[in-house]
Design goal:
By secondary structure, the protein is α/β, with parallel strands linked by helices. The radius of gyration is 24 Å and the shape is globular.
Length: 525
């Protein structure tokens, strides 16, 4: 009998989880509470309960080559950074290409997931679902939780003194759809994540005045990086990762500090982050909007008055008509028992951010809770590839002794809050999971057999196709996909001048030369 797996949610993580189950010969059933796939990326004009909510202008923060599933590159004519409709289109193509549709049950909510009485021996789960008000119970051998973490808004009003006497309008960023609510108003945006900055920029085109207040500050990166290349294709390379990880901490931070301040000096714009953690905000307009006075940056809120707000260390009041709280989301799993995934002050104890640490059998996994510096797609896909092999009891298995040691060692607490951003480099994490299942590319091994590929893998962007070169789940198109990644990146923008293939990819020689220079600069600095 094939192992039956319940997948909760049909967004990015749920789709790739379903596909990985099929690849491993498991039998997935994917439950999606809404009437369609796509999760976060499916825009709806009205806000649906317990579903993520987008505003129409959302564009991906990571470039298409870095955001692809590892055996399914984006079409070459897709733009480099994807408007939400394009990303949804890609997810639909993925579902179609791998025949996922027939395994997805739409309009079906997972009500509860409970251990069966004989869990200690079988590792099985009782799953109750609801469709059109009718409940059904099922027995599954394993469960993959792919319900995401952008559904339950975090709005700690008790932290904002005087909010109850504020006469104006206020709402959480989840409620935001169109900037016309800000027409002619004085707007305060609380919080400086990606949504906060996006909303402030959009508001400032129609509002009388926009202020962002942030107690922490933030690094701001533009999608358009050195020489106009996408930021993540420059930043997330094996070479850069190696440099970041071998340099001593202060030096590594100094390098990052230098890099993020190249575009504009954060201190001069009131943005210098307090702590040294590094999860940047991506926005192409913010510095120019600050420079042209459309947006002002202030410290955190001290208290609200009837029609105004007072900030810390600022004596004068600022008149305000409307407040947007961009205060993020809580992680919640309403269908699980508290004991399964303990979320305490926004931390969950998960081995490698995936397996709850105190289950006798590793038959439940949580996918996509991680916030990488980079794209989520390849990371959750790698998690799914690992998890499905653990379910099958392949050599990727978590041997119970190692699992127990990890649990006792206590090194599995993972901050799910933005304050405790995942400290590991996304690339290091991907490599670790890849080595569990035997798909980690060996640059040195390739150097003798296929030097062009080896150099592209090491010096070029760490695109997901690298994890399909060998091992289980090997894909024949991987090498070609890696060697043509720059062609697909440049094709959508080189629309006036015919592309000569030679200049399409920065020639290997210049890349190597530039990187040696960079290394010299870094180590000399």
């Amino acid at each position: 009998a094939r192992m039956r797996v319940a997948v909760v949610g049909a967004g990015v993580s749920g789709l790739t989880a379903t596909k990985c189950c099929l690849d491993e010969g498991l039998e997935p059933t994917c439950f999606e509470q809404s009437q369609d796939i796509g999760g976060l990326w499916r825009y709806t004009e009205h806000i649906e309960a317990s579903r993520p909510s987008l505003y129409p202008s959302v564009i991906s923060n990571t470039s298409k080559e870095m955001s692809a599933f590892s055996d399914f590159p984006y079409p070459e004519d897709f733009p480099v950074f994807l408007p939400n409709a394009r990303l949804l289109d890609y997810l639909r193509r993925y579902a179609k290409r791998f025949g996922l549709q027939e395994h997805i049950k739409l309009g079906t909510t997972v009500v509860s997931v409970r251990k069966r009485p004989d869990f200690a021996t079988t590792g099985q789960w009782d799953v109750v679902t609801e469709t059109d008000g009718k409940q059904t119970s099922h027995i599954f051998d394993a469960v993959m939780v792919c319900s995401g973490n952008f559904s339950e808004p975090s709005l700690p009003l008790h932290c904002f003194a005087g909010i109850e006497r504020f006469q104006g309008q206020y709402f959480h960023s989840r409620q935001y759809k169109h900037p016309d609510v800000f027409q002619g108003k004085r707007v305060l945006v609380v919080g400086m994540g990606n949504s906060g900055v996006d909303i402030a920029v959009e508001a400032s085109r129609v509002a009388a005045k926009v202020t962002i207040c942030t107690s922490r500050g933030a690094w701001v990166l533009s999608r358009v990086f050195d020489h106009g290349y996408p930021w993540d294709m420059v930043f997330n390379t094996r070479l850069m990762s190696l440099i970041r990880n071998i340099l001593p901490g202060p030096l590594s931070r100094g390098l990052i500090n230098y890099r993020v301040n190249q575009w504009f000096k954060h201190e001069n714009y009131g943005l210098q982050p307090e702590k040294r953690y590094f999860l940047p905000v991506l926005n192409d307009d913010l510095p120019s909007y600050i420079l042209t006075g459309r947006i002002t940056i202030k410290p955190g809120v001290k208290e609200f008055k009837e029609n105004s707000v007072v900030f810390h260390n600022c004596p004068e009041e600022e008149p305000i008509d409307i407040v947007v709280f961009c205060t993020g989301y809580n992680v919640s799993f309403p269908f699980l028992e508290e004991a399964v995934v303990k979320v305490e002050n926004k931390h969950a104890s998960l081995y490698k951010y995936v397996f709850p640490t105190h289950l006798q059998k590793p038959t439940l996994a949580v996918l996509g809770l991680i916030k990488p510096l980079g794209a989520i797609m390849p990371v959750t896909e790698m998690q799914a590839r690992w998890v499905t092999r653990v379910f099958k009891g392949r050599r990727a298995n978590i041997s119970s002794s190692m699992y127990q040691n990890a649990v006792q060692g206590g090194h599995i607490l993972f901050g799910l809050s933005y304050d405790e951003v995942l400290k590991t480099d996304c690339l290091v994490y991907m490599d670790e999971l890849a080595s569990f299942i035997g798909t980690k590319p060996s640059v040195l091994g390739l150097l003798c057999r296929d030097p062009q590929l080896a150099l592209t893998i090491f010096f070029g962007p760490c695109t997901p196709y690298q994890y399909r070169l060998g091992g289980p789940g090997r894909w024949d198109g991987a090498r070609q996909a890696i060697l043509t990644q720059w062609d697909r990146t440049l094709k959508p923008t080189r629309t006036r001048v015919p592309a000569s293939s030679s200049s399409l990819c920065p020639s290997l020689l210049t890349v190597v030369g530039f990187l040696l220079l960079l290394a010299a600069v870094v180590f000399g600095f």
